[in-house]
Design brief:
The complex is a heterodimer. Chain A has 28 helices and 25 strands. By secondary structure, chain A is an alpha+beta fold. In chain A, β5 and β6 form a beta hairpin. The chains are: A alpha+beta, B mainly alpha.
């Protein structure tokens, strides 16, 4: 028969794909006949081997895709897309898990993004209105001692700098305050600048409306022109396109608006608040109090000079040229104070004061460190969550491996899930970053920083958030993926694996301990900062801040001369004292926490040979100290006639503080004793009063420094701050005070109207912000850690149901079972907490400079932090422990 | 470079098989095809390879098959005879043209 050997027949009829069965068998039979007739081997062996080969090849080919090029492995992106789709499906199956994971990641990424966007804005974003800022250099004359101060430069000095061979151009602006009046409206105080006429050209700013200054306006006769800021144009000129050419009154002199500056430009550094620029040559009309020889003399005007180097000239070369110039200047005027103590400093970029940059850098380093820790915590948290999930999917993963998925494939799948969560988290974080940033800044960090709402989210922030979320999600998912993919197939498939391996449980405990540690560390640092802030507020200032209203005015710019000034101050004070709701009033040159420096030296008149004690002085009127509620240790306040001494020397009487009295005489009871002043040299003054030490300039420094108060008739300076002790609410008094001032002189605006306590708040704004932010982060950290602990415990109870019910069956009561669970929680908490305290001490030492009234090793703060975390841990134990205690033995063991 | 356009490509073996099927008309079954290729070119293909090529071309829709009447020498089993489909002819023509164009270009480049 034309049949086939049995094995061959079985192969071609059973194993070959159905549509080939008959034909392959027929073909083989036909060939056998032919081969036999040709004397070729066609026996059992040939037939079977040939059949097997055909069957094998056909079957193997059926498993390959039809298109040849796709025989290679799927391309990376396709694999990724597939993984993500799988991940999405897995996430949809457990929405609550997905939501918790995403929210946790959002928190970590969001906090970091918010901090970064603020840092990014400060450090990287270009200042509006400055083109090619990196090509600019800033020149300053700094103190050689490195104390951080600098000397102002005169116009001739600036011109010498501009003439350096390495510089293509140089410009400078000097800030000042103007009283600006528009169309007969009452004047307002604005920040302005005396600028060189090439100022906008050097900045590379093309004015959107009107024009910049021209060199013709270096001539005082043509200099009464002004460029106003876009901000001023928007807020006070109603965006009037016809504003160019309008007149405005600056300090009583008429100017013409020639241009509107670029949007958002208010000076070359971000903290700028300049709203009006006028040529230096206009100073005779706009700033009559400035020296007449401002353009040619030694009068110091510019804190820095902005310059554009010639192409190819490096900053180092300019520094060499500046050093050469400095030597020349010093040789010309060897006795000059500046030239003996100063040195030129130059750096790339527009003017951002170095001290400010340094302070902000420190603060952001701290904030980034803290938000980084928060990120670590959220990673650990998400890792535990994913860990649990990977474990729950043990059976699924085992099935996949059984179907041929490699371990790498499973890891990739799990990491893809992490990335999915991270991606969604990053999206939410970016959306929330602005809100979060607002919460972070909440208030203006300092006067130099705008609120977060101005801070844009640019590509760097996007990039940062993306990188952070990818790093975070990979970091969080890689460990669970590695451990989770280590599946021993047969037991896993057989019973769906109830218990987790001891190693797995250990990893989860370590991750939870890590979270607890970070929470303890952040809480400790937060508490240290909060306590520092409270301590600062609790420092007795020695006077009342809550009920004392302060406001300032500056009459010099309105052309007041000495006698009229004295009259204005006297009238203001008298008027103020008659206001209902005002019980005491006085004025001072330097009000609390708005320090202006001046000094003098004193020694006892009967010891003319002794070294004078140098002191800070403040000039005050009668009534100033009583208005603040300062306590007199001896003697009395100035009388009205002393304080308003028409000779205005103020040299006859003095009030000293306790510190100075003790330093000079060893006792505070020194009223009536005489002192010799250093300035004017040899002048004799009589101490009329001794006050208890008060803190009016700083809080952080111990102890209060010697201080003296001289009478202030309001003549010499022309500006001052009025203080009034109120018995009525500020909202009632302030409007009347404004009205009163308008009545006295409508052209003298008042500014900085606030309670003294608000000045204190502003002084403490930065530490308060920092304490609030870090405490906020710390609370979040504690919550997340608590959630993490809860998750681990709840999962642990689930896994141990069988064990626990056996224990219960053997006689363990609900209390004993509850204890068993709590013990695990406390173990993790204490292990993590101990590590956290170590980190806390390390961090606290880093921020020691920002602490006040507490040491970095403050036991109370750490104890409270630890206590909070233990309390949170106990709360998160409650539910799992209860569930464990209520395990139904019968149901469980059946 | 989507996988769609790759579907139209033919391997060398597939082309040989299709050309043989074309020449054999209605009598193109595995044994005859293999013989035809051997006679025309001297290339002796593995039996398995021929089946695989036929199977693939069938699944790609370039060939279609019908069973002939069973004959006794085949043990009462039918032959599975293949003919080219319209898309099979097009694919063959495309492959021819593609090779011809590339050859032309390559030869030109050599000069």
């Amino acid at each position: 028969m034309a049949g086939l050997p049995r094995l061959a027949r079985w192969l071609v009829t059973r194993i070959v794909p159905a549509e080939w069965r008959d034909s392959v068998a027929g073909d083989l039979a036909e060939e056998r006949v032919r081969r036999k007739s040709q004397g070729q081997p066609a026996g059992l062996l040939w037939t079977t081997v040939t059949a097997a080969s055909i069957v094998y090849q056909l079957r193997r080919d059926r498993r390959k895709p039809l298109v040849a090029l796709q025989h290679t492995r799927p391309r990376f992106l396709d694999a990724m897309r597939f993984d993500l789709r799988q991940a999405l499906r897995a996430a949809m199956r457990h929405p609550s898990f997905a939501v918790i994971t995403v929210l946790t990641l959002t928190l970590g990424v969001g906090a970091n993004t918010a901090v970064f966007s603020l840092a990014n804005w400060l450090m990287f974003r270009p200042v509006p209105g400055v083109s090619r800022p990196d090509d600019l250099v800033t020149v300053r004359m700094e103190m050689k001692s490195g104390a951080g101060g600098w000397y102002f430069m005169s116009v001739p000095e600036m011109k010498r700098i501009a003439a350096l061979p390495g510089l293509a151009s140089a410009a400078a602006a000097s800030s000042t305050s103007f009283h600006l009046a528009l169309d007969g409206a009452p004047p307002m105080r604005v920040e302005g600048s005396l600028a060189t006429t090439n100022y906008f050209d050097v900045l590379g700013q093309r004015l959107p409306h009107g024009r910049a200054f021209t060199s013709a306006e270096d001539d005082p006769g043509f200099a009464s022109v002004a460029v106003v800021s876009d901000y001023l144009w928007r807020t006070s000129l109603n965006r009037d396109p016809a504003a160019i050419g309008r007149r405005l009154v600056l300090n009583g002199a008429t100017f013409q608006i020639i241009g509107i500056a670029a949007p958002d430009f208010r000076g070359p550094d971000r903290s700028g608040r300049t709203d009006i620029w006028v040529p230096i040559a206009s100073h005779r009309t706009s700033l009559p109090s400035y020296p007449a020889t401002l353009l040619t003399g030694d009068a110091s005007l510019f804190s820095s000079v902005l310059a554009r180097p010639r192409p190819g000239v490096a900053v180092d070369q300019i520094r060499d040229q500046l050093n050469g110039l400095f030597a020349t200047l010093a040789a010309e005027k060897p006795k000059s104070f500046k030239y003996t103590r100063g040195v030129f400093a130059v750096w790339a970029g527009p003017d951002v004061p170095r001290w400010q940059r340094e302070g902000l850098r420190q603060m952001f380093t701290l904030l980034l460190a803290v938000s980084g820790l928060l990120l670590l915590l959220t990673c650990a948290n998400v890792a535990t969550l994913l860990f649990t999930r990977a474990h729950e999917r043990h059976a699924e993963l085992a099935t996949r491996q059984a179907l041929g998925a490699s371990r790498a494939r499973i890891v990739r799948q799990l990491v893809a899930e992490g990335l999915l969560f991270g991606g969604v988290g990053a999206g939410l974080a970016l959306a929330g970053a602005a809100a979060m940033g607002q919460w972070i800044s909440g208030l203006v960090i300092s006067r130099s920083l705008p609120a977060m709402s101005d801070v844009p989210i640019d590509w760097r922030v996007f990039f940062f958030a993306a990188v952070v979320s990818v790093v975070a999600s990979v970091a969080a998912s890689i460990l669970p993926a590695l451990v989770g993919s280590r599946v021993r197939l047969s037991p896993a498939l057989a019973q769906g694996a109830r218990g987790q391996s001891a190693a797995g449980r250990r990893v989860r405990r370590v991750l939870t301990a890590l979270q607890v540690g970070v929470a303890v560390a952040l809480l400790s640092v937060g508490l240290l900062l909060v306590r520092s802030m409270i301590a600062r507020y609790q420092v007795p200032l020695g006077y009342d801040t809550r009920n004392v209203l302060a406001f300032s005015f500056d009459a010099t710019t309105q052309g007041y001369e000495r006698d009229r000034l004295r009259q204005l101050f006297g009238n203001t004070l008298d008027g103020l004292r008659q206001q209902p709701g005002v019980v005491q009033a006085g004025y001072a040159w330097s009000p609390p926490f708005r320090p202006i420096g001046a000094g003098n030296g004193y020694r006892p008149a009967d010891q003319p040979e002794s070294a004078p004690v140098s002191v800070d002085i403040n000039s005050i009127s009668d009534g100033f100290l009583p208005a603040l509620g300062v306590r007199f240790l001896d003697g009395r306040d100035f009388t009205a006639s002393e304080a308003r001494d028409p000779l205005d020397l103020g040299a006859r009487v003095v009030i000293v503080n306790d510190a100075l009295a003790r330093k000079l005489f060893g006792t505070p009871v020194v009223a009536g004793r005489r002192l010799l002043a250093t300035y004017p040299e040899g002048a004799q003054v009589t101490i009329v009063g001794v006050i208890a030490d008060i803190r009016e300039r700083q809080i952080d420094h111990e102890p209060v420094e010697p201080r003296a108060y001289t009478p202030f008739a309001g003549g010499a300076m022309g500006w001052g701050t009025m203080l009034a002790r109120l018995t009525a609410p500020v909202s009632m008094v302030a409007p009347r005070v404004r009205e009163m001032m308008r009545g006295l002189d409508p052209h003298v605006p008042i500014y900085d109207v606030e309670l003294v306590s608000e000045s204190v708040d502003r002084y403490l704004a930065e530490p308060r912000l920092l304490a609030r932010t870090i405490a906020g982060f710390a609370v979040l950290a504690a919550l997340v850690a608590g959630l993490g602990l809860y998750g681990v415990l709840a999962r642990g109870v689930e896994e141990r149901r069988k064990e626990l019910s056996i224990r219960a069956a053997l006689g363990a009561g609900p209390a004993a079972i509850g204890r068993l669970i709590s013990r695990e929680a406390l173990l993790v908490t204490f292990a993590g907490g101990a590590a956290g305290l170590g980190t806390a001490i390390w961090m606290a030492r880093l921020i020691q400079a920002r602490l006040f009234g507490v040491t970095p090793y403050d036991a109370a703060s750490m104890g409270i932090a630890f206590g909070i975390v233990v309390a949170v841990a106990l709360v998160s134990t409650l539910a799992p422990a209860r569930r464990a205690a209520r395990i139904d033995v019968v149901k469980e063991l059946r | 470079m989507s996988s769609f356009s790759e579907k139209g490509l033919l391997g060398e073996l597939e082309q040989l098989v299709m050309l043989a099927a074309m020449r054999l008309g209605g009598q193109a079954y595995a044994v005859a095809i293999r013989d035809e290729i051997e006679v025309q070119t001297g290339i002796s293909l593995g039996r398995g390879s021929v089946y695989v090529a036929l199977d693939r071309l069938d699944r790609k829709g370039f060939l279609e098959s019908e069973f002939s009447d069973p004959t006794p020498e085949r043990g009462g089993k039918a032959k599975r005879c293949f003919t080219l489909t319209a898309s099979g002819r097009r694919a063959l023509a495309r492959a021819d043209q593609a090779i011809a164009k590339m050859r032309q270009a390559a030869v030109k480049g050599e000069r």
